[in-house]
Each structure stands twice: as C-alpha cells, then as structure tokens.
Specification:
The structure holds two protein chains of two kinds.
Chain A: E1 16-19, E2 26-29, E3 48-54, H1 62-68, H2 75-84, E4 90-94, H3 107-120, E5 125-128, H4 133-146, E6 153-157, H5 162-171, E7 175-179, H6 184-197, E8 204-207, H7 217-233, E9 244-246, H8 247-253, H9 255-258, H10 270-288, E10 292-295, H11 298-311
Parallel strand pairs in A: 3-4, 3-10, 4-5, 5-6, 6-7, 7-8, 9-10
Antiparallel strand pairs in A: 1-2
Chain B: H1 5-11, H2 25-33, H3 47-56, E1 64-66, E2 73-75, E3 93-99, H4 104-116, E4 118-121, E5 124-127, E6 130-134, H5 140-153, E7 158-161, H6 165-175, E8 181-185, H7 190-200, E9 204-208, H8 211-223, E10 229-233, H9 238-254, E11 265-266, H10 275-287, E12 292-295, H11 300-313, E13 327-330, E14 339-343, H12 346-359, E15 363-368, H13 375-380, H14 386-396, H15 398-401, E16 406-409, H16 417-423, E17 428-431, H17 439-445
Parallel strand pairs in B: 3-6, 3-12, 6-7, 7-8, 8-9, 9-10, 11-12, 14-15, 14-16, 16-17
Antiparallel strand pairs in B: 1-2, 4-5, 13-15
Helix pairs in contact in B: 1-2, 5-6, 10-11, 12-17, 14-16
Classes of the chains: A alpha/beta, B alpha/beta.
Chain lengths: 313, 449
C-alpha cells in the first residue's frame, strides 16, 4: 500500500523582515510552513545565524578564549572574523560596556563602536543593550540617530521602555526586537503596543527570551512553537513576526557550559561540552521556529549552519 | 484512545451483574473509558467484543518495551505532535553502537563510557539506555561472542543488529532472556526475520529505504502476527530523516495510519563522521520524533547535554519540575556563610544556585517546598509565606550549621519580611535581590557578621 504523505497547508505566513540596508540587506521570515516542512510550503529565507560580538569582555571561558584569540578586545576585528572566517550571516553586537551596574560607558561611545562595526562588515547588524530599561532607551535613541537609514535591528524593547526604544527606530528607519518573558500573550501584546506606537509590523522581530538547555529551554521551545503555530494556522497577525533566539549569552552562562573538567570530571571534556550546550540549545530552538539564532562559538555557528543546509535539502 | 464510556457500554452485556465490582455496566464502562479498570474484570464480555475494544482503545502509537528488569525501557505511546498540546511521555532512549569488527579495547572503552554515564537532575536519573550490537563481520560466531561479552558487561537493553537471519539467531541465543530488540527486518529477509521475532516473542525493527516500502513491510509483519515493531526510515540523510519522522508521527496520530503506529529508531552515527555534528543530529531526533537514537560514542561531554535535552523536552508542561526541599551546599559553606531561601521550582533553583556558584562565595541555599512554583507565583498562591518558610527553617537544622542568624529572602517578597521576623524571632531577615542575576554583586557586599 502506497503511503500518502500527510500535508497541512497554513492560512498565514510569517512576515518578511529586512535587516540591514543596501548591499548588506538580508531578509528573514516569510515562511508559510513549520520549520523545514519544505514538502508542504515555502521558507523563502532560511533561518540565519548571527555571531555575538561584545564591546567589552571580562573573563572568558577557556573554550571561547581559545576561539576568539586576539580579537576579543576589538569588536571590529571580531565582527570581521565572524563574517569572513566563521560564515556568520549577521553580527549581534552586545553593548556590554554600557551596563550601569559595571562600566557604564556612555551611549555615545557605544554608538561609535556600532558605526565602526557596521562599516566593517557586509552583513546586517543587530544591536542589543544589557537589559537596563533606561540605559537601553538611551542607547536606542543615540544609536538610531547616528546610524540613520542603516536599518539596524535594535533591542531589546520591553513593555516598560518600548516607547523610548520604538520612537527613535521609527524616526530613523531602524528595526526593533521586542522582548517579553517567555509568554505567547505578552509577546503578542508588545507587538500590539509597538504597532500602535506607529511601528510597521514589517519592522518588528519577536525575542521571546531564551532559556538555555537545562535552564528553561522547554519553556522557550514551546512558546516559540505556539507563536509559530498561531501565526501560521490561526493567521494571528501579531504573532507573525520572525523570532530571534539569543542563545550564546544564556548557554555560556550555565555552569554546565563553563565549568572546568577539574570542577566536574563527570561531565567530560569542557570545550566540547560547552560547544554542545550552546549548539543543542540552538538545534532545539531552530526546530521550534527561530528565524535568527545568536551564537558565540565558531564551532556552534558551523554546526548550526550545517544543519540548516541539510534541512534545506 | 477515543472511545467514550457510552461507546463501550453499548458493547457490554448490560446485565448489571456487579461481578466486575461496579454497580452497573454503565458505571463499569465509564471507569474503563477513564482507564481506571480493565476489561478483564467483566467475565461475560465476548471474545469478539474484547478484541474490538482492545483495538479501539489501543494507543495510536504502540508502546514497545525492550530489555528486562530495572534497565528495561519503553518507547512510543506518544499522543501529540507538539509537547504543549499535552506532553511527550516516553523520553527518547540514547544508545551506543559496538560492532564485531571493532577490537576488544574499543568495545571495552565504549561499554565503559555507556556504563559510567549516569547523572541525577531534579531527582531523575539520566543514563545511556541501550547498547546496539552490530554484526559487521557477517560471522555468526563472532557476533555471538560479542553479544555474550556485552551482556556480561552491562545490564542495559540490547539492540541486535544483523540482517542475516542465521547470524541473528546466534545473537538471540547469546542474549538469552534479556528481551533484545531485533534489528532489522528488511524487504529481503522479512519472512525469516519476522518468523524469528514471532517465535521468540521479541520486538522487531523494520528498515526500508522509503516510506512506501516501510509501510508495506510494517503491514506485512503485523499481518504475520507481530505486534512490537520499531520503525527505521533509513535515508541516512538528516533532512530526509527529519521529513520521514514528521510524516510517520503525523500519519500515526492524525490519520490513524496503523502501519506507522510504532516508535522509531534513528542512527545519527551513520549520518556523519563528525562527532560534534553527530551530537547535533541526535539533539534534532530527540526533539522531533526519534524513539531510540543510536550514537557512535557515549562520552560525557555529549551524553550529558543530550540527556538533559530529553529531560527538558519530555517534561510535562502542566507539571513544573520540582527539586527536593532542603538546604543545598553551594560551594563549601561554613558556619559564617550566607543563608538564602528560595522556592523548589527547578528552574528557580537552577538559576539561583548557578548565580551563587558564579559568585564564588559559598552559601547555604534553602529550598522551600511550594509545589514547584516560582517565587512570585508561590507567594501569590499563599505558599511561599512566612509560616511555611519559618517551619522550613526551624526543621531544617540550619541553625546548628551557622553561627550567625541572618536569612536572605528574595527581593520580590520583601513585603513578608516583617511577618517572617515575627515567626522567626531569632533571625534577622535580609531582603535580597529581585533578579537572580544580581545575586553575585549582592553577596560580594554582604556580611554575616
């Protein structure tokens, strides 16, 4: 008996959102199928892998120290290396230096770094603050103004500061990532608030907050699946934004990824273990529906890109 | 699945004889539909009806048990495509492959890896679930010797891999009564392999190059009377394997396609030679519909994250994972170390303990039983309240372990500090941080003296 492949056709599709401008532009989203269900619909743009670059690093896990080498203190060189050698599709620039609880560098100074990095690479740039509501709003204003027309993806905008992050993005033609704490309705609600503010829905990305493997991954996984299903099968407009999974920071923060073999001999080789902690988090969220995956280690970038290629047939 | 109490009632004798222990046939039918009693309790139901009801109430994906005793595992019995719709039930089993063309040292090393890999997380024991023993040499004697060796070294369930039935027979003999999974029936050997599995009453894997052939073979084998099958769609190309696994799960659940109503087996070890990529593929199959996942090695660096992934994905979304309520030693705390309390929601515990550990300041972390809820939820539900916390502190014995009397509570429940001080008159209540991420900075400026 011949088997008939069961297919399901979605009513809706994820919005196509352009990141970057001019030659550097790249589209994400646009799919009308669940992740990689290419036999029943289309993913016109494959999920992209963004390399995390920080403008200030403290003590690094040895695996990352080794992978980064010289470039760890030079965000421009780091970004170039990530694009040219590691094959990153985008740069996720984390402005660690601006954290008011630490260095508290002025927004103007951070914005200079953003411009230099943007200038140096031929891929879209995502700019994130450190989740300090006031400082992030200030960074959004300064960065959006100075980088007018570059169409950066700026975040995270939260329910408490979305106006201050959203308004300059509208004025200076940037895209915004709205971040909510692992909840379908809150993600939807923030998109409604941002569009009511005047943002085009085509300029929004959902950051549903990433829980790393062993630290809430299952919550992010299910929230992403539910957002994707709501967008595709219920044609729910305010869930049809591409999704960003901010994996590197969360995965490398876990003790399982960063502890040495002396501390936990029963966990095995620390370098491979750290890479797999990040990669496995990414694999799960790729299958759950992430359109942008932010990763730190070059090996994780390689592995996730290989999987995306294999799943794309 | 799917049969209502009334559907079942129509098929019962309707004599209300009470011999089943229930007052009426209707009451019995309702209990049956709820899965709270067994049809065998009714002495008068006909064999015909018995078969009909058994079939109608069978899960859409059969549960298949491999192995015996404590180490036995069951895969299958899944009811949904997405974990948020209900839950995934029987976590993907990770296996490691040994082959009779490997030298002894290699086999010993792999078995050692498999045996040593055992971790506890949130009260769940995570371990390698199976050993796949492959007849690569084609020599029945060699295969038999390897099966004997493996069986002597581990109690883990075996997957016997041979396509030549004579070689398989030698392996089955060596496996004794350990209920191995036979791998695999193919188009070429289905009659003989099916007969062997039937005679020995063993579960049997079915391997075919495409889904049409897999469905045909599965139907042929169930036609021979076999019930415990495991499906291997064998393109050995990750993209196609993913597509096949989705198709099989969907066909079984949404179309009730009986030929695919079985768990699956995948072989990332045969899809790449790159150990890291092999591990990434295993992660994909844990998420998307792999029942058994066979790897080339079982080093801790790969098995631990994969096992944690299985734990995460197969956690019941409606029932939060809880850790044991007690004082945890983070680092090596002494009598002057800070004392903190939080709730027993596993995520809360992992994040808080992780931040304390990251601060490099040893501390005592008390975890209060609030039915696995987070701090704010438990407080709102009246569970993380002064009375409960005081009772926990007073019975925990922490007062004997530290000299000071300072208790740090989560910043989100600052409002209970006054009342808690009344409940714990000996203690000074200190309001900690709202966010776990701020704990290291807090602890660095905190002093118990």
């Amino acid at each position: 008996m011949a088997f008939n492949l069961p297919t399901e056709t979605a009513k809706g599709k994820v919005r196509e959102v352009e990141l970057g401008a001019g030659d550097k532009a790249r589209k994400v989203g646009g799919e009308n199928v669940l992740p990689f269900h290419l036999w029943e619909g289309e993913m016109p743009n494959r999920p992209i892998v963004a390399a995390e670059v920080s403008d200030e690093v403290g003590e690094l896990v040895p695996a990352l120290e080794k992978a980064l080498g010289e470039v760890k203190n030079d965000p421009v060189a780091w970004a170039k290396k990530a694009v040219e050698e590691w094959g990153a599709d985008a740069i996720f620039l984390l402005l660690t230096s601006t954290d008011p609880k630490a260095t508290d560098a002025p927004a103007e100074q951070a914005a200079e770094t953003v411009l230099k990095v943007e200038e140096a690479v031929n891929v879209p740039v995502i700019v994130y603050g450190t989740e300090d509501l006031d400082k992030d709003a200030e960074i959004a204003r300064v960065v959006a103004t100075k980088a007018e027309g570059k169409n950066l993806l700026i975040g995270p905008a939260k329910e408490e500061n979305f106006k201050k992050v959203g308004a300059p993005a509208i004025g200076y033609k940037q895209t915004v990532a709205g971040m909510t704490p692992i909840d379908v309705n809150l993600a939807k609600q923030l998109n409604i608030l941002l569009t009511n503010l005047g943002m085009e829905a085509e300029k929004l990305v959902i950051d549903p907050t990433t829980g790393a493997l062993g630290y809430g991954l299952e919550y992010t996984y299910s929230v992403m699946e539910r957002l994707k299903i709501a967008g595709l099968f219920q044609d729910d407009s305010m869930t049809q934004m591409p999704m960003l999974a901010n994996i590197g920071t969360q995965a490398w923060k876990t003790k399982e990824a960063k502890s040495s073999e002396e501390e936990y001999p029963e966990w095995g080789d620390p370098e491979k273990r750290g890479i797999m902690w990040e990669t496995i988090t990414a694999v799960a969220l790729l299958l759950a529906g992430a359109d942008i995956l932010v990763l730190r280690h070059p090996e994780s970038i390689r592995l996730v890109k290989q999987l995306i290629a294999d799943l794309s047939g | 699945m799917g049969l209502s109490g009334l559907d079942i009632f129509k098929k019962l004798p309707k004599t209300n004889c009470k011999e089943c222990g229930f007052p009426t046939c209707l009451a019995f039918a309702m209990k049956l539909a709820a899965g709270q009693t067994a049809l065998d309790e009714c002495p008068y139901v006909t064999d015909e009806v018995r078969a009909e009801l058994a079939e109608a109430s069978a899960p859409p994906i059969r549960g298949v048990t491999v192995g015996v005793g404590d180490e036995a595992f069951k895969v299958g019995e899944e009811l949904v495509l997405f974990r948020h719709e209900k839950t995934f039930f029987n976590p993907a089993v990770l296996g490691v492959l040994v082959s009779d063309d490997m030298d002894d040292a290699k086999v010993d090393e792999l078995l050692k890896q498999a045996n040593e890999c055992e971790h506890e997380r949130v009260g769940v024991i995570l371990k390698v679930g199976a050993i796949a023993v492959k007849a690569a040499s084609g020599d029945a004697g060699k295969f038999k010797a390897l099966v004997e060796k493996v069986k002597g070294a581990t109690a883990k369930p075996l997957i016997l891999m041979a396509e030549d039935v004579e070689v398989m027979k030698a392996g089955v003999e060596a496996a004794g009564d350990s209920r191995p999974l036979l791998y695999a029936a193919t188009e070429a050997n289905a009659d003989a392999m099916g007969a062997l599995a039937k005679e020995k009453e063993l579960p049997l894997a079915v391997k075919a190059e495409d889904l049409d052939k897999l469905a045909e073979l599965s139907e042929k084998l169930t036609g021979m009377g076999l019930k415990d099958l495991v499906l291997d769609p064998a393109p050995r190309k990750p993209g196609e394997t993913f597509k096949d696994l989705v198709a099989i799960r969907r066909a079984a659940l949404n179309q009730k396609f009986a030929a695919f109503g079985f768990p699956t087996i995948t072989f990332p070890c045969e899809e790449t030679d790159d150990e890291l990529y092999e591990t990434a593929l295993a992660a994909m199959y844990i998420c998307k519909y792999g029942g058994i996942v066979v790897l080339s090695h079982a080093e801790q660096w790969r098995m631990y994250p994969l096992l944690v992934l299985g734990l995460n994905i197969y956690t019941d979304p409606q029932r939060p994972m809880a850790v044991d309520s007690k004082f945890y030693e983070i680092g090596a705390p002494d009598e002057n170390s800070p004392v903190l309390v939080t709730t027993n929601f596993s995520l809360t515990y992992f994040i808080v303990s992780g931040e304390i550990e990251g601060s490099k300041i040893p501390a005592w972390l008390g975890v209060v039983d609030v039915d696995g809820q987070s701090v704010l939820t438990a407080w709102a539900a009246g569970k993380f309240v002064p009375e409960t916390i005081a009772k926990f502190i007073n019975t925990s014995g922490i007062a004997d372990k530290v000299k000071h009397r300072k208790l740090i509570i989560p910043g989100y429940v600052a409002q209970i500090s006054g009342e808690l001080e009344e409940e714990l008159p000996d203690w000074e209540i200190v309001i900690g941080t709202r966010e776990a991420a701020d704990i290291p900075a807090f602890l660095r400026q905190f002093s118990t003296t």
